[in-house]
Amino acid sequence: MRKGVIMRAKLKFAIGILTLTTVIASCSSTKNLKEGESLYVKGNVIIDSDTISKENKEKLSTYLQSSLMPKPNKRLAGVPFKLYFNNMAGDSANKNMIKRFFKKIGEEPVLLSDVNREYNENLLRNRMENIGFFNAEVRSDTLVEEKKATINYTAKPNLIYRIQSVKFDIDSTSQLGRDILSSSDKSLLQIGKNYSLDIILNERDRIDNDLKNKGYYYFSPDYILVEVDSSHRNNRVDMYVTVKKETPAQAKIPSKINKIYIFPNYTETSSGYQRSTRNAELFDSSYYFIDRRRTFRKPVIANHIFFKPGDVYNRTAHNQTISHLVNLNSWKFVKNNFVDSKEVPNALDVYYYLTPLPKKSLRVELLGKMASVYNGTEVNVNWTLRNAFKGAEQLSFNVFGGYETQTGGNADLNSSYYRYGMEATVTFPRILSPFGRINPSRRFIPKTYVKGRYEFLNRRKAYTLNSIALDYGYIWQESEEKQHDLALLEITYVQPKGISENYQKQMDTIPALRHAIDPQFTIGPNYNFTFQNTMKQHLKNTFYFKGNLDLSGNILGLIKGADFNKGKTFKLFDAYFSQYIKISGDGRHYLKLSENSQLASRVSLGLSYSYGNSRSLPYLKQYYVGGPNSIRAFGARAIGPGTLAPEKLSNGLFYADQTGDIKLELNTEYRAKLAGFVHWAAFIDAGNVWLQREDVNKPGAKFSKNFLNELAVGGGAGLRFDFTFLIVRTDFSIPFRIPYLPKGERWVFKDIDFGSSKWRKDNLMFNLAIGYPF
User: Residues 632, 602: contact at Cβ < 8 Å?
Assistant: First the structure.
């Protein structure tokens, strides 16, 4: 099937969806309403103030509007689709299976009579008082047109109240008072700031958290009282922070840890969690283990318990212990109890109940793959053995196989293919090192991994490849935002076999085809550093960065004295070992424009230097651009290197991937919500790859100072369907700048002609993908 046929089929599908949407939209949302009833369609909050900026008015309006009750019927692209389903079901839904289904997925109409305006007015006043507008006024009126009702609430905040003074009215002679006062300089209640109930609640939580880390296990935020005096006429408030008189005596005294009991192989009974310590074995003079079957080695678990007898209770140690035990991935449930000690006053006995996950598990995955050219399927069978060596290790075997066939394009993309193989991985929840115990961070669990992988690839009309990969390294987290992955040794070995006669003939004239099947052997360390704070959704600017340093054959090259310029190159296992230094960086910035829109940008840079035993990077390590997650107006691996034009191949000829030793890619995308789970985006992509050295077979491919004039540029727009657990993305894009055209003709805006079927076939690119491109 050719690309044009595929494109027409997808357009027909899109037209069909639009037609169905139009039919649904043509239904009347009010046709089933009784006489005198009106459909409640919207509640607006209008801010009446001369002192609040336009931007803050919008924020306040959005905040208040979210409080209104009830919510109107759910809409998608302005259409109350669930209400339409309910209307199609009618009143006789029980007599028809289809109508029963529509009734089930539908939604009853929200009527104007369901709205209590007085309740909402009081609710809005209360919300404004909570953020400092103590003298706020609210009025409302209703507008009804064609049985559709809108209620407009006009909120007049008046002047906001600010904090004039903060006093900690605490008994400084008691230990509790001294501990509270010691952190008063970190108070969230600050003079000059707006009054806010949320900040008061957060201040109580801050005090409680600080006390928890000083041993006050039984203290609670509810024992803190913040009194507010707003009697001033200058819109100011005085605040007094006190401890409630009814606070229990036990909550005013720090608690210590007495005995620690650990049940590593616990099974919950109908009577709840037991406290029987019969057959307990003392380890390291600190921990009592109840594990008759000895399912786990004691030192491994003890290393992740952050309490010892005699320690003052500490919430940070409490949470870190739970976090570590959960992240060992050996237990289905991790539960702990703190119980008053019967032996020592103001002390706690700690019980850890650990219910193991199944020792073995089997998971089967069947995947479907769809693209504009290739379609196929893949199956993965994964077997996992937990606690393999009684130290929370994990051993996994994965067997995989897949087949993809070419369904579009004018040339063979190295033909349809199938592949199969297996991967074995052992993960240890610690750093295994000959230099003793190394723990980069006590907050997070470091891991040592050993991986082995074999894959057989058969491109039926072209060649077969056998590849083996071995890895040994460490993964550790420095903080919530920073992660390190150091592969001390990474070995990749690839050998071609069964090269077809047709492919052999073509690669003699197209060297790039030969490069794709060169025997490859890389050996060396590989380091990745990742930083991201995108999980902090309250920030306006968030970032993601991943840097990579990849080395291969450097020590071997020095030992052998390799120098390709002098013809001194060497083989290992019948393959020339690669010698290079490769550095890559992928930086992303996300600018939050509003609650439902953002600007996402990416800069991806790749540099390499091949020397000694290699003229260029091996094929598997080279850079490429183009495709659904790169420059979307061009096919995958279809740009560059440099100004090199792609081969114009007809049916039956193989396609050579466009790869290089240097890469630059720039992307920016505006993302916004349309309605419900439907979002949209507009984007511009640019980039290219280049070679490190001149190649007589690839004129214009070498990196030069004119690299900016050799960038491919494209842009477009698309929809994103955000189902929370899955994001389906559709993008339509066209090229703006084509780097292999003659100078002065590379910008192609003048050639855009959506009315021409030939132009659309050659330039309009459709991508269907899962997830965001970056």
Answer: no
